[in-house]
Amino acid sequence: MTTFYEERRLDRKNEREEDRRDRLAEAEAARIRDEARAEQRRKDEEARQEEERRLRAERKREKARRKAERKKTRAELLAKLGTEGDTIGALVVMACGIAPAMFFQLRALNGENLPGVISLCLAVMLEAGAWVATVSGERAKKEGRPVGRFRVVMWACASFAAVVNYSHAPESSGGWLAWVLAAASYAGVFFWEVRGWGRGRHGTKSTRTKAQRREDRRRRRHDRTRRRRFPTVYSRYTDILTAHPFGTIDTEEAWRAAWRDEHGAEIATTARVVARRGHADRALAAAHGVGVETLAVEQLLTDLFPPDGGDDGPGARRSSGGPNGGPGRGGRTAKTLGRKGKQAIGRVTGRTAPKVPDKPLDAAHIAQVEALADILGGAAYLSVKNVRQAIGGGNYRYAMRLRDHVKAERKNAR
């Protein structure tokens, strides 16, 4: 018996212990659940606050963006108003001109016992006709189309409305009111035209400077003068420009080609000019008692041996009194020209001068002429004149030999 009750007591004790542990476990589980719920609520609250902060920041950014856009829009509007001040002024003046013109047109039409609607339609037709042509002309300007037809219609409609206002104006001392009402019909289109004077060809503000506009006027005046002064050359000039694709030939080059085609010479040179030059040379030679050939020799010597002296010392100053050998004072004679002058005169007159050994070509001079050829774009552009300038003067034959030497070297190198 004793054993039975002790075992039962131990079982109850174990059951109570198990119950206690179960309650502890449940309490722990409940605590963990409460902590988890509290943590979740804390996270949810943080997320909600973060979302609110994000939304506030986004609303703030959106507000700042809209404010910046409004500020930009206002600035653009003010800038446009600043650049379109002429348009605003024209519109104000146009409205002030249309209102009285419409009123007195309605009054004149109503005086003819027309129905009110008919009078209104006719008055609008008279005033609006000019504005249809004005708007159409403005669009044509923007699209680069001719506007002459639109302007004719615009002024014709405005003139018709002005005649109506003038003829039906109320009586006034001196008739000034009739002129004012007629001017009111013209005011709108006139001031719109004034607005267009300050703008470019396509209705935009002109970007050309005053100097550019002056240059354009001078160019047009020059072109008109050419057309009047040289009609045959100008006709050939237009043929050349028309025959070539647009923009592929320079206008001045076309003019030079047209002049050569018509006169066979360079610009400003004609057969009549050449004949006058010959006559002037003969008259000058006759005045000094020398032949024309002497004048040609003088010009040749001046071209070949300018006053830089060359390699024979400073050249003599040319006389202002006439050609060499003539009666002019201070003339340069063959004696003062040195060896080169005597040789040149000998070549012209048929006499031969004693031969002089050729001076060897200087290597430094050859290098200078080769550099000059590179600058000019090839040895073909070398001349005795620019060779002498490159080496600082010198004998004419020496410069010619230098030029020929460099040309031969370049030709052999190819």
UniProtKB/TrEMBL annotation:
<feature type="region of interest" description="Disordered">
    <location>
        <begin position="303"/>
        <end position="357"/>
    </location>
</feature>
<feature type="transmembrane region" description="Helical">
    <location>
        <begin position="148"/>
        <end position="168"/>
    </location>
</feature>
<feature type="region of interest" description="Disordered">
    <location>
        <begin position="1"/>
        <end position="53"/>
    </location>
</feature>
<keyword id="KW-1133">Transmembrane helix</keyword>
<feature type="transmembrane region" description="Helical">
    <location>
        <begin position="114"/>
        <end position="136"/>
    </location>
</feature>
<feature type="compositionally biased region" description="Gly residues">
    <location>
        <begin position="322"/>
        <end position="331"/>
    </location>
</feature>
<protein>
    <recommendedName>
        <fullName>DUF2637 domain-containing protein</fullName>
    </recommendedName>
</protein>
<feature type="transmembrane region" description="Helical">
    <location>
        <begin position="88"/>
        <end position="108"/>
    </location>
</feature>
<feature type="transmembrane region" description="Helical">
    <location>
        <begin position="174"/>
        <end position="192"/>
    </location>
</feature>
<feature type="region of interest" description="Disordered">
    <location>
        <begin position="200"/>
        <end position="225"/>
    </location>
</feature>
<keyword id="KW-0812">Transmembrane</keyword>
<keyword id="KW-0472">Membrane</keyword>
